[in-house]
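FORM 7B: Structural annotation worksheet

SECTION A. Query
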Amino acid sequence: MALGKLHATGCLVAVAIIALVLLNLYFLSSQKDYDVFFETQETISRGARGAVPKYLILVLSKRGNVERRQAIRETWAREYLQNFGWKTRFVVGTDTREQNLDEERFEDVLEVSVPEGYLSLTEKLQKAFETILQNERFQYVIKVDDDVYLNLRPLLEASDSDPPDGSVLGHAIFGSVASSDPVDKYFSEAHASQKLEFPAFASGTGYLMSRKTLAAITRKCTVPRSKTQYEDVYFTGYCRNALGFHLVDDKHFGFQRRLVLPCNVRQFAVVHNLTAGNLRYVHEMLELKMSC
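SECTION B. Predicted structure
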């Protein structure tokens, strides 16, 4: 009897293994091959040698966030550089308390002469925009934070993903006001006391605009930078609105919390609030062979 049970157990294990193999083969055969897709896009992107790169990716970072920058270099930034020639630039400020900086080994760190701090982010990003407009070649700029995994596949697949001049594409936020919570890292007593509703703006986790739009926002905006302590509200809200530019709400930039599963993350351009380890984990999720 014991021998019979052992035989039955062995048969069940064998059936389970065969089922897993068949299931894996199904996933492999039915999955959209992202590597092939990237190779096709690479051929299109590099078709004209010497052409101006389509995207420049600007990552708002902090001087001491060395591990996050390295995780980005090893994951999505390397993918876009190798496949398309699209560069990533990390923006950091100055801080005498934090000497950790990786600019000696990497040429992708853009240091601006603005003290690190949440209340100086607008000035920090202003200088970064001015620098890339002067020194970099690109058709569009994508701005993200350094806790974001940037997945451009949904945008590359969409035929209308590139916003026209005079518009900003991202996750639109409406009816927001300055934080009144003193514990909030963005809290400013002066701004909180005004209780003004912000114009619609794109979440700073990730947004996209053309070079011409960026140049206008950077050089022609007359709104005082003291208007708000939020850099995304200033550039994509106040300045965009003052110049008569449009805000395009794109579902791919929606940053609401979601389960980090392959079929979830493949739908979105940004996955937000990640550590260095999380960035690598999301990269592994996107490389899994699984049908969605």
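SECTION C. Observations
The chain has eleven helices and nine strands. The two ends are 45 Å apart (CA to CA).

SECTION D. Sign-off
Analyst initials: ____
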